[in-house]
Amino acid sequence: MNFLEEELAYLQEHHLYRWLNRMDDSQAARTVINGKQSILLSSNNYLGLTEHPELKAAARQAVTRWGTGAGGSRLTTGNLRLHEELENTIARFKRTEAAIVFNTGYMANLGAITALAGKNDLILSDELNHASIIDGCRLSRAEIKIFPHKDTRALEKLLQQAQGYRRRLIVTDGVFSMDGDLAPLPRLVELAEKYRALLMVDDAHATGVLGYRGAGTADHFNLEGKIHIQMGTLSKAVGSAGGYIAGSRKLIDYLRNKARSFIFSTALPPAVIAAATTAFRVIEENPQIRENLWANARYLRSGLKQMGYSILAEESPIIPIFIGDAGKTMKMAEKLFTLGVFAPGIRPPTVPPGTSRIRVTVMATHTREDLDRALSAFMQAGKELGII
Ligand SMILES: Cc1ncc(COP(=O)(O)O)c(C=O)c1O
């Protein structure tokens, strides 16, 4: 077992060792982390819905009425009426014929990709896709071709050469999780149509955040009805847990029969499902929550840019601040934490070597005072470490 020690020592030496920070309070804009009062500037709880009184009430009522666990997989004894209500709600929200809920976003990607592609198929995947897409591709046993980030010319070349495959699947993040930029969806839709490929988009960071109705990247680009497979999570802006695939009735029926991560896992518990269903109603009825999120993102991003920080993308509430070196990035995160701001460093293997960054996300529930305090911390830390 010497390899354990050696491997851990290697990680430490290369600033790649990971540890857990302990949340001592909820996912609120101001919280307590490792015993210290902090402004939370890195949560995917974009709309602050984990704290919303209506979601909390729905979860409490679900426990009282339905108990604490689902007791079985969806195909055995775990298919509560609540699950079906949630799936109908998601389909309505996404304007698709149907939807299917998985226990996590990770499992939704794994289950859908492995069900849709196999031997003799080709998957075309953006180089910056999320790990759950990468793992789904690997597990599928399909041939995988990675195209450079958002490079639709390179993708078209690959599609032109893609003869003799049973199926072709193009897969991309809608909002890239570590870069905060958007997939070139209009062109991807054209290419999928031209080369008769399936198009799958991961809206983990877009659900509830992007688009006129907050319904994701298809809503944002006015491409509703044009994307075959829309994946999303219930764990980020929706404020609960789980993942979904939305699409045609046939697609969802097929996944119910073929997606192993759906079939072979106990269904999500009632409280989680009820909170998610309520979240979609709250999102639809309160567009101002989303407007606050975007206003906060604009305010913080503009303040950081004025200080001279290099911001990698400006298209979502994810604000990646480029540092480069992994060690320096971790020092920056540490300094920010001592100044009362929690915004962790992101290093390889999550991002390519030499592109380490502080990944800031804002929430709709941050006040201007929270953001101003965060900006002062960034000013002090950046100057002390010679970053700005
Ligand atoms: C782009 C993307 N896809 C999928 C997932 C997985 O979702 P979940 O956390 O619900 O498993 C995440 C985040 O965790 C993500 O950022």
Describe it for me?
The protein is an alpha/beta fold and 388 residues long. It has two domains: 18-46 and 287-384, Aspartate Aminotransferase, domain 1 (Alpha-Beta Complex), CATH 3.90.1150; 53-285, Aspartate Aminotransferase, domain 2, CATH 3.40.640.10. The protein is built from 14 helices and 13 strands. It has helices spanning 2-13, 53-66, 81-94, 105-116, 131-140, 152-161, 185-194, 217-220, 249-258, 260-263, 270-285, 287-307, 326-338, 368-384, and strands at 30-33, 36-40, 98-102, 122-126, 143-147, 168-173, 198-202, 229-233, 243-247, 318-324, 341-342, 345-346, 356-361. A seven-stranded mixed β-sheet has the order 3-9-8-7-6-4-5, with helices on both faces. It has a three-stranded mixed β-sheet with strand order 1-2-11. Strands 10-13-12 form a three-stranded antiparallel β-sheet. The longest helix has 21 residues, at 287-307. It starts with a helix and ends with a helix. 49% of the residues are buried. The mean pLDDT is 97. Pyridoxal-5'-phosphate is lined by residues 104-106, 109, 130, 132, 173, 177, 202, 204-205, 233, 235, 243.
